[in-house]
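Try this one yourself first.
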């Protein structure tokens, strides 16, 4: 099986490459990435097995000619490339629209002209918008994205889903991903807390901290993504989360791990949007999901992985 991963040098991509190359059923992994985040850790980290299977192509998701060339002889596509959300996700809508929407459109057009048999698109829980803690969201809930990031990811879903009449398509709406990885994203809230708690012994909380968020560990997310192509999973849209937590509950866990930890609120009177997602996942009917670990143990392990 030959696999192409757009955004393969990123946070999820680095972990997914490691996972796939260790599988004897995978004969080739093409990493397609423009390296615009200047993240080169994939090329430096120790991948113990399967390195001869990996090929790197530096290319942009908006380069239709480059995409078509990279897709030659590919069986499966993981579409991870995206401009990811930050606290300033509404500051520059043009880039979200160009990369997440039209970049996905370019990829879908290229896939139509290829021999690809499966495509997995990592979308986001943010496409549901803020619903509050009273509503428990599953895949039947009508999306209502509130940010430019969420809107662009939802539009990308349409481009992937329209391919379902020809090939197997999977839209995976991921919760907030966290956990140690050589290609870290420190704008993700738990990852940022881990850095700040270890080196500053002080973390900053946006809003009042009562906002509810769905989370999933990077290892669990990658395990699920890798299992999809190895099992008989019907085409469709699936949520991928492990737990729902208020930000203040996350902070309490960090205080258990780092007892001297202090925290400050930024715009404490601001009510941030929250969302709660059903953890009884539909995709669990088709693949074996990783059993969630103790959140405290995960955070302790995360903090212990820092160099000092």
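Now uncover the answer:
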């Amino acid at each position: 099986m030959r696999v192409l991963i757009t955004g393969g040098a990123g946070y999820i991509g680095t972990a997914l490459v490691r996972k796939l190359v260790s599988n004897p059923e995978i004969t080739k992994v093409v990493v397609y990435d423009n390296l615009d985040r200047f993240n080169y850790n994939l090329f430096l980290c120790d991948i113990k097995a399967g390195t001869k299977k990996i090929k790197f192509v530096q290319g942009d998701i908006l380069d239709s000619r480059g995409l078509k060339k990279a897709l030659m002889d590919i069986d499966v596509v993981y579409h991870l490339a995206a401009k990811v959300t930050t606290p300033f996700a509404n500051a520059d809508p043009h880039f979200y629209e160009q990369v997440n929407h039209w970049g996905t459109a370019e990829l879908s057009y290229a896939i139509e002209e290829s021999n690809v048999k499966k495509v997995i698109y990592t979308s986001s829980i943010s496409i549901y918008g803020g619903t509050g803690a009273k509503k428990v969201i599953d895949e039947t809930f009508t999306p209502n994205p509130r940010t430019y990031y969420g809107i662009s990811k939802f539009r990308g879903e349409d481009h992937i889903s329209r391919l379902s009449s020809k090939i197997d398509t999977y839209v995976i709406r991921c919760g907030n991903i966290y956990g140690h990885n050589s290609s870290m994203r420190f704008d993700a809230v738990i990852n940022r807390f881990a850095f700040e708690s270890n080196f500053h012994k002080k973390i900053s909380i946006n809003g009042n901290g009562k906002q509810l968020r769905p989370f999933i560990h990077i290892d669990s997310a990658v395990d699920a993504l890798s299992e999809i192509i190895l099992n008989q999973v019907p085409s469709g849209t699936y949520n991928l989360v492990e737990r729902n937590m208020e930000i203040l509950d996350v902070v309490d866990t960090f205080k258990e791990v780092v007892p001297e930890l202090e925290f400050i609120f930024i715009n404490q009177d601001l009510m941030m949007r929250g969302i709660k997602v059903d953890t009884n996942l539909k995709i669990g009917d088709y693949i074996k999901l990783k059993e969630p670990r103790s959140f405290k143990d995960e955070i302790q392990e995360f903090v212990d992985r820092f160099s000092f």
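Discussion: Residues 2-179+215-242+277-291 form a domain with the Rossmann fold fold (CATH 3.40.50.720). The longest helix spans residues 93-112.
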